Amino acid sequence: MAPERRWPRSVYAEGAEPDYRFSFANERTFLAWIRTALALLVAGVAVDVVDLSLSNGAQKALAVLLVAAGLLTTIAAWGRWAMAERAVRRGAALPSFGIGAGLALVLIVAAAIALAGLR
Fold first, then answer.
1. Are 42 and 36 in contact (CB under 8 A)?
2. pTM for this structure?
3. H-helix or E-strand spanning residue 20
4. Which single residue of 58, 61, 74, 109 could bond 54 by disulfide (Cβ 3.0 to 4.6 Å)?
5. 26 and 41 in contact (C-beta within 8 Å)?
6. What's residue 53's pLDDT?
């Protein structure tokens, strides 16, 4: 398919067509991030629905934190996919992995809320 017909054009209009293995690897990484986002969303809904031994405020805060993390992970997955695909097409270095540090911080905060709320 011609680059001008592929979407998003901001990704496919740059550089040369890479070896398909690199594009597939980038796609698998994107899908792994989407699975992570889905797991965070499910965890947030479960925390909200299941009656835990947390205060109502802590349980709601934990649920909101997990759902928000799932939403942000989805957005970050798309951006990371686009940056990596552009880098591969240009033959440039891959982008840094800042998403992982942010997600780790969110999970540390979620664990702290859960531990602090246990009676």
1. no
2. 0.84
3. helix 20-49
4. 58
5. no
6. 85
